Amino acid sequence: MKAGVSRQTVVRAMNDMPGISADTKAHVLRVARELRYRPSRFGRGLAKQDTLTVGLVVSDLTNAYFAELASEFIAVAGEVGWTVLVQEIERDKQHEKRVLSSFATQVDAIVGYLLIDDAELDDLVGDLPVVRFADLARGGHRPMIGIDYEPGMSAALDHLTHGGRRHILMVDVPTEAGPSPRAEVFRRLSAARGLATTIVELPDEHLPRTGAVMAFVAQALETHPETDAIVGFNDMIAVGALKQLVSAGVAVPERCAVLGIDGLLVGELVTPSLSTLEFDMRMAARMLFEAMLAALSDPHPAGGTGPVAIVTHTLTVRESTATA
Amino acid sequence: MKAGVSRQTVVRAMNDMPGISADTKAHVLRVARELRYRPSRFGRGLAKQDTLTVGLVVSDLTNAYFAELASEFIAVAGEVGWTVLVQEIERDKQHEKRVLSSFATQVDAIVGYLLIDDAELDDLVGDLPVVRFADLARGGHRPMIGIDYEPGMSAALDHLTHGGRRHILMVDVPTEAGPSPRAEVFRRLSAARGLATTIVELPDEHLPRTGAVMAFVAQALETHPETDAIVGFNDMIAVGALKQLVSAGVAVPERCAVLGIDGLLVGELVTPSLSTLEFDMRMAARMLFEAMLAALSDPHPAGGTGPVAIVTHTLTVRESTATA
DNA sequence: CTGAAAGCGCTAACAG
DNA sequence: CTGTTAGCGCTTTCAG
Prior knowledge:
2 copies of one chain form a homodimer. Chain A is 41% helix and 18% strand.
C-alpha cells in the first residue's frame, strides 16, 4: 500500500506467515523498517481475540519479598509470552481499589497480594480472573495460592524449645482486623506447647524504619525482660530486633535467639546471621501463574475453588538461633 | 443495545461524560454491572489515539537498587495515569533484544537501564521514544538521565584519605567492554590524588552470591595485603567485603575501611554499618519519567539530545569508614 | 502467491 | 438528552 509495492501482504510478512515469497517478504520488511512502521497493539488485539497481559499487585516492591515475587512471576510469565503490569498498593485499600479498577480495563487477569475480599473484588473487576497469593486462613470463592505457616512455625518452635527457649516474644505487624495470620499460628502452636509467649504489635507507621523497630523492640524487652527468643513478623523486623539486641549488649543467640520469616538475602548478611523460615518463591510464582491460566480457561469452576495450592516454609538455621 | 434499553449511550455512562441524565446513566451502569461488562482496552485504544503505557527495563528486580527504581517509577507514572510494564534483562544482551522488540508493539515508550547502544536500539524499536538511565560517559543521540559518579567519588576519596587511607582497593564488576564507569572514575580521581590504588575485577558469575564475593575478596587481599580501604562496585559487593574482613578478624574500620555505592537499606543493617554513596532515587525516577514525556511530545529534537539531566551521589558516612 | 472485503469493540462527530 | 454513522489498524476469510 504505502510503499510502492504491496498491501495487507504486509501482515504475512510481519507475522512470519506462510504463503509469501521470500522476495516480497524481504522487500516488505525492508520498507517497513524504512518507514519505521510498528504494528499497533490495539488493531491486533481487536482482531485476534487472544491476548496476554496480566496485572501483578504487590504491596511494596522495595520489600525484597515482593521484589522476588515480582521477579519470579515476570520470568515465568515471560517464558510463554505473557507480559506483566506491576502495581504497588502500599497497604492502602483505597489505592488498591483504584489500581484494581484500572487493571480491569488493562489486563486479562490479575494476580498478587490483595487486601480486599472477594465480594468487593467482584464489584471492581467483574469476572476477570483473579488469583490471590494469601494466607491460607483467608476465605473466598476465588482461586488462591495459600500460604500455610503451620509446618514452618511448628519446626521453628521445636527448634527454639529444643534450644531451651521458653519465653518467646513475637513482634507482629497486625492487620486492620487484628493479629496477622503469622501471629495467629504462632499463638496457637505455642499455646499447644504450653509456652509462655507474648505477641506485641508494631504500629504500621514504623514499618520501613529500622530505627523505629529497634526502639520498639527495646521497649518491649523492658516489659518482658525474661524473653529468650524473638520471632519477627518478617526478616526485616527480625533484623531490627537483632540490631537492637546487639547494640544493647545482649548476646545473640546465647542470651536471646532471633528468628525471621521469609528467607530474604539480608538474613545472610547481618551479624550474627539470621535464622529464618523460607520458601521457594520461584515455585510459588509458578503456581500463581498456572492457577491464573487455569482460571482463565475456566472462569467459574463448579462450586468456587478456594486454595488451589499450598506453600509451606522450611526452617533455615543460621547463627541467630544456634544452640550453645 | 444488549439490555432492553440503550445503545452507545453506554459510552457516555461508562466514561462519565456530560449530556446524559442521571437516570439513564444509573440504569446503564446497573445493567453493565449485571452483564459483567468490561470495555475492551483494544477498542478504546484504537478509537482514541492516546494511550499511556510505558515499558520499564531493569536488569534485576531482586537487586534492591532496581527494585527501588521500579517502585519509584511506577509511583510517578501512576500519578498521571500511566501504566508500567516491567521486564528484567539479567545482564543478557540477547534477552534484552527480545524484550525490547516485544515492547515495541506493547508500549508507547521505553525507559530504563539498557545494555545495547542507540544504533541497535533504532533497529529494534524504530522511533519509539526511549530514555535511558545510564552512566554519563555513555554516548548516543537518544535522551538519557546521566549518572555522574565524579562528585560522589571525589567526596568519598577525600573522606578516605583524610582518614589516612592510602592503599585503596576497588572491587569492580566490569562490563563486557572493560572496567565499569564507576571504576573508571575511581581510577581517574585516585590517580589525580597520587594514591596507590588497585582495581580488581570480580567475574560476573559470582555476582549474586555473597560467599563467592567473600572468597574473591579474601584472595585479592592476599595479593594486596597493604590495603587499608575497600570500595565496592555496589553495596552488595561492599557488604561481601565487609563480611570477609570481619570473619577474617580484620578490624573494620580501624585496620581497613569499606565503602559501598548505591545507598541501599542493607547498608544500615550490617555490622559495622556501611558507608556509601547514595542518591535520590525518587528524583531520578521522576526525571526519567519527565524526560520520557518530553521525548514523546518531541521525538526528534534538533541535533539529538544526549543527557537531559544528571544525577550525582551524596556521601553517607557510617561506621565502616569512621576515622579512629 | 497476492489482493479485496468484512469486522473485531470502541469513540467521535453529527443528527434527531 | 439520545441515536446514527463512520472509522481507528489489524487479522481473517475468501477470490483472483
